[in-house]
Each structure stands twice: as structure tokens, then as C-alpha cells.
């Protein structure tokens, strides 16, 4: 294989990695050239994260070889030597929350022997951060940093170890539009200094924006490495899915606009969900919402706009300061998750690790957590019924797993998210509230999951999608855009990306409010 004159910053060849019966990597390969921005894409479970673990020395492959600039990789267990070669910025923070930025930067390598000289440490940290143009106070506690600041600190930390390769595993998942712009600007600047990136993302438009080369993995194997320029998105998606039937990202309109057999949603159809004056001080102003049977309502907004807080209040995670909430006309006790579930509210949380799954338990147990009362007589749980139930979910949501008894800890991130959705659907909720439901989900599964949300509505229930992802919002019949805790715009069908993004950024375009499509009288608008 012809590569540029210089050896690859990292080259992995013939990598095989098995987890029990699962082959996570099957003679996979990848090479990143110096200063290159290289994307690694593939469907959920394709083997991307496993390769990252191999490239960072966290997992030892069963077969194959990793070299850095032509030299053999360090020995397994020699963490410091691996850190000098490569670093990974994960979605989940790797910094210690209670330590300061300076302490995190020098964790396990405090300068000088003997007693730690704190003032010198702070000065070193300040110099290091400014060398990489990171504007963060070295004395700030890591837990007080924004996601964006934390990622910059992690990048500076990696570079200070001497690494010339940084792996970014879905770095934009928790950033808003401004944060993504700033991250990309920083990455481009570092590239000019010769730092190479391996960028993992399910957002193909980010791959096109940032990367010059893309590698596709499918079913544990390498299937394609090609320059990004000149590679049509349809071909990229086809390589990922192994067929040419995969709708390209940004085309979930196909799902959204598919004819959906709706139940009667006439003006006197009883709302599946209604809020009156629902309010949470400091988060969102009094809000009157109505979701009708068959309707998917979008609550759009950037980080801290209030849309997530509304979603969390609907599902009982947060106790509102005032107002009422009802499902199919029956009042729901606010601030109680069990009551919300009993009342018929299904919940797909944003953070599947903190709120979604019991990692050590099986797919079947996790998928049925909310329906144990239906799995056997007199409070018993029949394993056969649990497995059969889970198997139906695995099939209908296309969950990639060795079977219902596999622990969810062994599933890829996107497949874990599907288990969370399976659990929310298990009770056949009257209204499904999903917060960023497709975070970490691959292009094809994204369409499938959003299709599931539409199906929930089509069956006569309702759904609320809380998100800043345009693809999530495309499946909605109606969208309320939040900014600073208030609804600033309402859209029916026919909105443009620009209009909606502008509304989420707090820039309301003339003629947007209540005029974009069919919006009549659904939000009895205190706010609008
Ligand atoms: N620790 C583990 N134990 C058992 N199986 C595992 C383990 N880690 C990964 N796997 C399996 O290996 C396969 C590849 O998973 P991996 O996490 O690498 O996929 P991925 O491409 O990163 O997916 P995603 O986009 O969903 O994050 C999956 O089938 C997964 O279930």
C-alpha cells in the first residue's frame, strides 16, 4: 500500500480482537499519516471503539501489530510510554472532577522529586495552557469546567505528553454549535502544527467538514479508506451499511415524511399530554403544552436553553416550581419518576450510562426493567417470557448482540442506546419523551430509531423529542424552539435548517413565529 514518504504516525495491521464468541475486530487495519485528519466511521458495533482501545494500549489484540512512526508499540501496561504516543479524548471525561485543572494536567507526573511545589505547578500549568491557546484558569476545579473547556484541557494534556496523535471519540456529542466551531478551529490550528487526528463520529457532515481521509469499518472489518473530497455521501453510507439502500445522513426526511397512518387527531381528540403553567425557576418560564394522539412534538434548543429541563420535568426527574401535568386527562404527580411511568410516560434519557442502564445486567433484564409485572404471574418473573420479550425488541430495533442474555456492558454504545429505547417502549407508553435519542447512534439505526418514534405516534400515542439535532427534529410534526428558558418560535412543517438553527441561537427571523406551517392553537401560548 503506497503511503506518503514519512511513516504513518500510527499503523495497525491484521488486528484481531475477540470477546468470547464476538469477533470485534477481524484482521482490521488503519494508518494515519502525520498531520492528517482521518475519520473512522461505521455502524454501531462495527469495531471502532475496540480499535481505539487497541491503539491506546488499553486492550491487547489477539493478533496483529501496531506501530507508531514505524516503531513497535510500547509494552502493554507501560501507560506512560503509550501516553507519549497517543491520547484519546472520550465523550466521558477522563479528568478527575475534584482536582484542579493544574493537578489534572500533571496527574501522576508531578514535576520535580519529593514535595510538590504547588505554586510552580500552577505556573507550569498556566504556561502549558497558554502554549496551546487554552483559556482556562489552572486553579478551577475540573468539575466546574464546561464540556468544551474540559476537552481543551484534555487535548493540551495529551500534547504535553508529546503525543502527535489525538483520537477524538464523538467529541461533538455534548457541544452546542458554538462549541463545535471552536473545537474545529482548534483542531485545524493544531493540524497546521503537524498534529494528526483520528476522528470518530456518526455525524457525517462533520467528517466532510474536518477530515481529509476516511476509513470505514463494517462488521469488524476494514472496508474502505479514501480521500473525503470526491467521495459522495451516498457511497460512504453504502460502504458503512454494505448495501446501497442506506439513506444518507440528513435524509431522515424520508422517515419523517413517510406516510403515517394516524389515529384521529381532530381538535377534540383528547391530548395525550398537557401541561398548564408548568415552570421551573431558573430553567424555564411557565409553559402550556399540548401533545395530541399521533403527534410528535419537538422541543428544540441549544445547551441550557431550557428544553432538556422541560423534558426532565415531564418525566418526573425534576420537580416543577408550579403548574400541572396530565396524561390522557389524568393528573400526574409532578417530580416523581415512578408516577410518570405509571401514568404512561416513557422516557429515553440523554445519558444512558447515568440514567439508562444497569451495565452488568443482560440485554433482556435491562429491556424489561419497567415491565417486570407483566413477565409472570403473582409478581414472579419468568425467564422464558423475559427472553422472548427481549428477543422481540432485539429484532424490531435491530440490536446487535449475541443474544438476550449478553450483558449490556458488552454492547457498543449505539446498541446500548437501543436497549434504553426498548425499555422505554416496553410499557407501551401514552407518550414517549426522548432526550437526544440518537446520540451515538449510526446513520442507518438513527433512521430506524426515529422511525420507531414515529410508529409510537402512529399507534395513537404521542411523542416528545428534546434535541438540538436537526435530524431528530425532522421527524417532528411541530417544533417549539427554546432560548433562555422561553419558547421563541414555533414551526409546523416546511421549516428550513437555517430558520430553526437561527431560532435555537436566539435569532428569531421575521415571520417565523407560528407561521411556518400548521401550528394552529396547539400551544396555548403564554410564552409565544
Ligand atoms: N468488553 C466487551 N465484551 C464483549 N463484547 C464487546 C466488548 N467490547 C466490545 N464488544 C463487542 O464488540 C463489537 C464491536 O464493538 P465496538 O464498541 O468496538 O463498536 P463501535 O463501532 O465502537 O460501535 P458504536 O458506534 O456503537 O460505539 C460489538 O459487537 C460489541 O458488542
UniProtKB/TrEMBL annotation:
What InterPro entries does its record include? AAA+_ATPase, ABC_carbohydrate_import_ATPase, ABC_transporter-like_ATP-bd, ABC_transporter-like_CS, P-loop_NTPase
A molecular function (GO) held by this record is: ATP binding
Residue limits of the ABC transporter domain? 10-244, 267-509
Segments carrying the region annotation (Disordered) are 506-528
Regions of biased composition (Basic and acidic residues) lie at: 519-528
Name of one Pfam family that matches? ABC_tran
| Keywords attached to this entry | ATP-binding, Nucleotide-binding, Repeat, Transport
Cite the PANTHER family for this sequence.
CARBOHYDRATE TRANSPORT ATP-BINDING PROTEIN MG119-RELATED, GALACTOFURANOSE TRANSPORTER ATP-BINDING PROTEIN YTFR
Q: What is this protein called?
A: Sugar ABC transporter ATP-binding protein
Query: Which organism is the protein's source?
Result: Streptomyces rhizosphaericus
